[in-house]
Structure formats: structure tokens, C-alpha cells
Amino acid sequence: MRKGVMIACMGIILGLSFHAPFFTFLAFLSLPYYIHVMLDERSLKKSLRIQFIYTFLYHLCGSCWFLSAMNLEHLGATPLMRYFVVGSGWVLLSFAITLPYLLIPIVLNGFKQDVTRRLPVLVITYASVEFLMEFTELGFPWFRLGLLCANSNEGLWMASIGGVYLCTVLVLVLSYVFLHMYYHKRKYAWFIFFILISLFNPSIASCEEDVAVSLIQPNISTNTKWNDDFERINDEVQINLIENSEGIVFLAETVVLSEDSTLQAYLNTTDKEVYYGAIKEFNNEYFNVLLNTYDNTIYAKQHLVPLGEYVPSLLSDLFPVTNSINLGNDLSHGTSPNLFDNGEFKIGGIICFEDIYPALVSRSVRDGANLLYVASNDGWFNENEMYQHKLHAVLRSAENRRSLVRVGNTGMTFITNSWGEVCDSIDTNVAAVLNGYVDIEDTMSIYNIVGRFIPYIGLIYILASLHTLKKEEWILLFGGK
Fold first, then answer.
1. Residues 274 and 336 both lie in one domain
2. DSSP per-residue codes, 361-397
3. Radius of gyration of the chain from Cα atoms?
4. Which of 44, 90, 174, 280, by CA, is between 20 and 30 Å from 213?
5. Would you say 381 and 226 are in contact if contact means Cβ atoms under 8 Å apart?
6. 150 with 242, same domain?
7. pLDDT tens sequence across 430-461
8. What is the pTM for the complete model shown?
9. What is the pLDDT of residues 311-343, one digit of tens each?
């Protein structure tokens, strides 16, 4: 009972560590206890219960910003229905994300007697499960332990070698080091802990002045953004900001909502090089797209937000009520390459939620992208979600050794250098132009060359462990006694 309460508390603490940079240290209070319990527990049934409680509460607490969507009036439902759909979606999503993590105790179960290998197996398998999350029905690999490295120069360097997966390994190994010191050399343990805190704090960086860019943050309320009565006013706000730009212009996600809008008319005639997001209809299907003002290249979003832009078939079949509220779930998945070529360099386009998928971003770099562009609209949620979303973009920049411009409707809007360090930004929830510079790179990172070697090693462990499960253990996994 005591162990269950402790692991639940540690799961909540880990979730809190993702809410702000100064909360990062909480992860190194939570993870050592989790590692200790998982390495010590030999019962498959108990370790499955421990893993589920820890991971479910970790995701539930980390994604509590999801509930802020209840206040969105444009969803077109009664307040009671909004509370039900958003609240149940929050819980169901956390539950679904938790299930793949149950592979960790299953793999550890195959190494009951081999104590020396249980730690590396735990670490590698954990990273592999985070990788597998990219391929689930819900497709929501939002929380990765490696995200905590986005505030550390050392962590960003590790990302350029092994991606976010190597960063996850780093976080778990450092947590074990603290655990080991605590049990064997306690007087040095807290010294190590404060070193960890100093390593995982953001630093100030500078951008190379290769190409001038202008990032437009219009700060348009989500409740008015989709309201036809405010469309012209919102368009004029963005046009005025574009007029104050000094370089290549980048706009946020879905700034153009109709072909006959004031903003679209302006973009059709401007001499400026502008990249922007829009909703476009092709063959009676609607797509979330990126376009530009110099040619006909269109990139349609490939990874749509579950429950936000479409309802996964698994949920719509099990819970038909999820189709009863207008969440924008009538969008279709795109298939086109996410590359723009202006004649001088190539830009890899990424729409909002897609920056949590390392493979999509790396593919654009291998195809020749010299600069990464993320167009987003995080106005749906509060600043906790914006901060977590920022961490993904920072790591994509570091993994691929490319400068990145990220433009949010209400924030976060910033520029990174090719090491993933944020070198220029503007405050959230203000209408402003960020005029800055980016460096244009064409060298490949080690991560781009070697790829995802860490999760592939873990997948071997997972397959081998499933092969060695006994009949009674399979019965246990599927609810038997």
C-alpha cells in the first residue's frame, strides 16, 4: 500500500516537471524512486501495476492544460457537453498513452535473475517505448523524458548524436547515478543533485546573421479566430504586422481561413516572400496546409491532432459521443513532401503538432532542408502547453543541426540557432513582429546519419521478451488470474 501511494506521488511529481523550466529538477526526485522500485520488483503482476499507476498519473498531471479547452465557446456545444467531452478525452488519452509503457515490466520480467542487465534493459526499453508511441492509433508521443534536455546545452548536443531517445537514456542514467549515490554515498548525493539542476537550465545563445527573417505573432483569440464576424479585423492585424517586417516573413498556422479573405487577397499581391498556414479544400476534402507567395508549392499536414482535427477510428467506434462536438474533426491527412525551395535554400515545413515526430522532420532535412519552419496555433490552451510544445521544436532543431523558426498565433514564437539554442523570442499573448536572423546549414548531424539506433536495440529486447513469456504470464497480461 505504501509503495503504491509513493509511486503515485512520484508520477504526479514527474508530470509537474514538464510545466516550467524551473520545475525540471522534480524529475530527478521522481525518477530515482521509480527506477529503484522497478529494478527491485520481481513480480510481473506487481510491476505492471506500478508501471501503470506511475505512467498514467505522470501523463494525467503533465497534460492537465488539456482542460483549458473547456472554455472554448466556438466548439458549438453546451457547457456540460464540453466538460464531458474534454474531460473524458483528457482521461482517455492519458490512459491510451499509458498502455505501451506496460512493455517495460514485461521486458524486465525476462531478466529476473540477471541483476546487472536490468538497468540497461530498463533504460533502453523505456526509450524504445517512447519511439513506439509514434505509431499508435492515437499517435500522441507528447511526453518524452528526453524533452527535459531541451533546457541544457549538453542535452542539445546529445540530441544531435542520438536524438530525443539518447536524451531519454541520459535522463534515466543520471537519475540512477543520483539513486546510487543516495544509497551508497549519501553525503555526496545532494551535491550531484545540484549539479543536475545546473545542467538542466536554459542558457542564452546568439544567432548567426545569414538570412533576415520576420515572424508574425498576431495574438488572435481562438474564440474570435473562427468567428466570421471577426475575420476582417483579424486579417488587418496581421497585414499591419507584415508591413513592419524586415526579412522573409513567416506566419502562424491557419491564418487564412477562406479564399476571399482580406489576408489572402493581400498575400496574392504582395512582393514579400511569405510562408503561411491556411485551410484549403481539394476534391471535397479539407486540409491544414502551408503555402508561400512565390510558387504553387503546398504542404498538407500529415499528422493530425487526435480529438482536435480528427477522431481516431478506435475512439469514434467505442465512444460515438466524440463525434457530437465540432472539434475540427473533418480534416484529411496529407501526403505531399514538406519542402519549399526559394532558389537559394530549402525550408522544411512543419505544422504545429507535427514537430513531436522526429522522423518527419529528419526526412525533410535528408531531402535537403536548410531551415526548419514550424507554424502553430497554441491559442487553444494555456502557457504550460506552449512551453511543452516549445521543447519539441527545440529538440528537432538540435537533432538535425538546423536553425528553426517557430511562429505561434499567441506564442511561443522564437528562433533557434543550428544547435537548438533559442537565440531570439517574443513574449506570449502579445501582437508583435520578431525580426531576426537564421543561419543556413547543409551539414548532416550524427543523428541524421546514424538514425534511431537506440530504440531499435530496445525493440530487439521487447520482441525477445515477448517470445520468452510463459503461458501463465500471457494469461495475466490479458486479464486472467
1. yes
2. HHHHHHTT-SEEEEEE--TTS-HHHHHHHHHHHHHHH
3. 23
4. 280
5. no
6. no
7. 999 999 999 998 889 999 888 777 777 777 77
8. 0.89
9. 766 666 666 655 555 455 578 788 877 889 988
